[in-house]
Design brief:
The chain is 51% helix and 23% strand. It is α+β, with helices and mostly antiparallel strands. The chain has a domain of 120 residues: Sandwich (Jelly Rolls), CATH 2.60.120. The strands form two sheets. It has a four-stranded antiparallel sheet. It has a four-stranded antiparallel sheet with strand order 2-7-4-5, with helices on one face. Helix 4 crosses helix 5.
Length: 188
């Protein structure tokens, strides 16, 4: 378990260095959780008390429309943060599902604990702001790619940007993420 905490400290240190005393405070508020492949981290309509940092594994965040079609918003793997952020921040029921594509391990951070960290250690407020900005930028880029790129361009950009993800995600899910059929994906 100590190795997991070292990974988290290294992740935080990419944006801000913490003293040992600050790290002691930070490490106490994160809790560990593990889930098996196909288990839900978040289900639609449930309250979302935590945001999650992925230690190991792979998840997908998605919504299901009125016709039962799955719309994948995000894949998240090691060192990604995932949650239904609207539900987490605003304490409303989740609008999406997040489930595990692989056996996965997480650090969970409750909303109250994140606020406590930001108050007690201002550097952590900076860390969370930068991480939020990165997430927002990634979301904007995803929306723009869906609006202005061809399916083949979206696929090629994903291969360039996240080649390891392509190897881990089943083709059916990758096609759904890109908004194409599996047959179209095979042609790429």
């Amino acid at each position: 378990m100590e190795q997991h905490y070292l990974l988290l400290r290294k992740h935080i240190a990419e944006i801000c260095e913490l003293t040992d005393a600050e790290w002691d405070i930070v490490s106490r508020v994160f809790t560990y959780k593990s889930l098996k492949k196909h288990q839900f981290l978040i289900q639609k309509e449930q309250l979302v008390p935590c945001e999650y940092w992925i230690i190991k594994g792979l998840t997908k965040a998605y919504a299901i429309d009125g016709n039962g079609k799955e719309h994948i918003l995000q894949f998240a793997m090691e060192q990604y943060w995932t949650s239904d952020f609207n539900a987490f921040q605003n304490k409303v029921p989740a609008a999406i599902f997040i489930d595990c594509i692989e056996d996965s391990e997480f650090f969970c951070l409750k909303w109250e604990d994140r606020e406590y960290l930001c108050h007690e250690i201002p550097k952590m407020g900076h860390f969370f702001r930068i991480k939020s900005h990165h997430g927002y930028i990634a979301l904007q880029q995803r929306i723009l790619s869906l609006l202005i790129e061809t399916a083949e361009e979206r696929y090629n950009n994903l291969v360039k940007k996240l080649p390891k993800l392509i190897q881990r995600v089943p083709k059916k899910l990758l096609a759904a993420y890109l908004g194409v059929t599996r047959e179209t994906l095979s042609r790429f």
